[in-house]
Design a protein that fits this description.
It is found in: Cytoplasm. Keywords: Aminoacyl-tRNA synthetase, ATP-binding, Cytoplasm, Ligase, Magnesium, Metal-binding, Nucleotide-binding, Protein biosynthesis. This is Phenylalanine--tRNA ligase alpha subunit. The chain is of the alpha+beta class. The chain folds into two domains: 85 residues; 233 residues, BirA Bifunctional Protein, domain 2 (2-Layer Sandwich), CATH 3.30.930. The protein contains eleven helices and ten strands. β3 and β4 form a beta hairpin. The longest helix has 33 residues. The radius of gyration is 40 Å and the shape is elongated. The structure holds 3,4-dihydroxyphenylalanine.
């Protein structure tokens, strides 16, 4: 009998498992319903009375041994599966994780705002779905005037007209209606036009609107402000020029060109060999616009400008096709990882 106890305890002590099947064999043999230790219990009735107690104790010891060994085996299996931290080589390079980056259009918008905040501009916004008043009428587009067709509009409703805004100039009206001069504000936002998508045009794009209204604001303020902007946004050497133009909401109006950032005036296909590239429109706020917003045009004057954020970003980074900005091709976006 003593031999039997000894051999079972030796068997338990030396039992090794290398997988779940081994563990299960252990369980069946020493713990399960018909286990070998249980068999010993059933031999109890054949044990002489004076030895029963000692026998029972021995069987219980074996049972406890089998249980604690079982826990040990479970733990040894688990720790083999989980990498042992104490053996990790901390000098190995870590697994590479990749991060997203700032989108180039966002980077340009942020830089734009930074430049203008330093000269006292704040940021304002308006809705992308606009009524006729804010997108056209208050901006001095006469009823049925061909100027309304300058910007092919996505209408949502007709009479009264509700449309996706065709430019951020609509935010000028919202600010002028709600604030007192002096006003210096920048309005970035998404705009929509019914245009065929190409390398240079899109039906959804972004603009940055600027507005400055105060006593005595003049065209030279406009020119100097945009000159400062061009040098900050591009480079110190950047030149700026104004070409006479027409917008219903400004008088006089101008188109703004900067010296080509690619060829620096030598001539290349980006500037179409002129040395100049257009970045937007500008002008002195038409007195009618101020009056439409209940601002006395005999006291106040102002300038405004509007630029395409895609356009500026293309010039800043030498991007030749604006469709790249919205295609979400990581090979393109990764090139801006350092922004
Ligand atoms: N709203 C014009 C456009 O979308 C751009 C523009 C031109 C805005 C002149 C202005 C401005 O504020 O003064 O083409």
């Amino acid at each position: 009998m003593a031999d039997q106890f000894k051999s079972i305890s030796e068997e338990i002590n030396s039992f090794k498992v290398s997988n779940a099947d081994d563990l299960e064999s252990y369980r069946l043999r020493f713990i399960g319903r018909k286990n070998i230790i249980g068999d010993l219990f059933s031999q109890m009735r054949d044990v002489p009375n004076d030895q029963k107690k000692a026998f029972g104790q021995k069987v219980n010891e074996l049972k406890n041994l089998a249980q604690s060994k079982f826990q040990e085996l479970i733990e040894s299996l688990n720790s083999d599966n989980v990498r042992d931290e104490s053996h990790a080589d901390l000098t190995l390079p870590s697994a590479k994780s990749s991060f997203g980056s700032i989108h180039p259009l966002t980077a340009t918008r942020q830089r734009f705002i930074q430049i203008f905040e330093r000269i006292g501009f704040n940021v304002s916004s308006g809705p992308e779905i606009e009524d006729d008043w804010h997108n056209f009428t208050a901006l001095n587009f006469p009823e049925n005037h061909p100027a309304r067709e300058m910007q092919d509009t996505f209408f949502i409703e007709k009479d009264p007209d509700i449309a996706l805004r065709t430019h951020t100039s609509s935010v000028q009206i919202r600010v002028l209606e709600n604030e007192e001069p002096p006003i210096r504000t920048l309005s970035p936002g998404r705009v929509f036009r019914n245009e065929a998508i190409s390398a240079r045009a899109h039906c959804v794009f972004h603009q940055m609107e600027g507005l400055y209204v105060d006593k005595g604001v003049s065209f030279s303020d406009l020119k100097q402000t945009l000159y400062h902007f061009a040098k900050e946004m591009f480079s110190k050497k950047t030149q700026i020029r104004f070409r006479p133009s027409y917008f219903p909401f400004t008088e006089p109006s101008a188109e703004i060109d900067i010296s080509c950032q690619i060829c620096h005036g030598e001539g290349c296909n980006i500037c179409k060999y002129t040395g100049w590239v257009e970045i937007g429109g500008a002008g002195m706020v038409d007195p009618n616009v101020l009056e439409n917003c209940n601002i006395d045009s005999s006291i106040y004057s102002g300038f405004a400008f509007g630029m395409g954020i895609e356009r500026i970003t293309m010039l800043r980074y030498g991007v030749k096709d604006l469709r790249l900005f919205t295609e979400n091709d990581v090979r393109f976006l990764k090139q801006f990882n350092s922004l």
